[in-house]
Design goal:
This protein is of the alpha+beta class. It has a single domain, classed as Gcn5-related N-acetyltransferase (GNAT) (Aminopeptidase). It contains 5 helices and 7 strands, in the order βαααβββαβαββ. It has a 7-stranded mixed β-sheet with strand order 1-2-3-4-5-7-6, with helices on both faces. β4, α4 and β5 form a beta-alpha-beta unit. α1 crosses α3.
């Protein structure tokens, strides 16, 4: 890794982010979901119109990690009403957090998490919260390593398939 840059995405990144987001979500979860459910979710969550709306919202910050000019990861931090399970003060959500497989275990995720926590603070947050699939042990371990603890459960829909996510939170003071 010679040149890791974390930058804020702009509306000019919408098409690239739509493609990269869909690819990383698919790579992470396709093996555990029916193809038609995966296709329905990807169409609703990662199209260019969705990414454009998110990138132009004052309540969203999208971070891209680029290594030697290529995208390796992205995360989205947003102001969003938290579920009741989130009890910390001034909560801000880390909505999406995806690292391309080839960069797992190489420090990219840790750098991106620190950048996300900085954005949470910048947005006035004192608590960072997120949801993570109960069947994603690697992510659960990563978040626990970074100080997140489970505070509840929530539904997450992949197409018509209702799955269970852990709600996790941590202070950022």
């Amino acid at each position: 890794m010679t040149d890791l840059v974390i930058r804020r995405a702009t509306v000019d990144d919408a098409a690239h982010l739509a493609d990269f987001g869909a690819r990383t979500f698919h790579d992470a979860f396709a093996a555990d979901n029916r193809p038609e459910d995966m296709a329905a979710y990807l169409a609703s969550a990662f199209g260019r119109p969705q990414q454009t709306a998110e990138l132009t919202s004052p309540d969203w910050v999208t971070l891209l990690v680029e290594i030697d000019g290529a995208t390796a990861a992205f995360a989205q931090v947003r102001r969003q009403s938290p579920p009741a399970a989130v009890t910390g003060p001034a909560p801000i959500e880390i909505h999406r957090f995806y690292v391309q497989r080839g960069w797992h275990g190489r420090g990219v995720a840790g750098a991106l998490m620190q950048a996300c926590l900085d954005v949470v603070r910048e947005l006035g947050g004192r608590t960072a919260w997120l949801s993570v699939w109960e069947r994603n042990p690697r992510a659960l371990a990563f978040y626990a390593k970074h100080g997140f603890t489970r505070s509840g459960m929530a539904e997450f829909w992949v197409g018509p398939d209702c799955q269970t996510d852990h709600i996790m939170e941590r202070g950022v003071d």
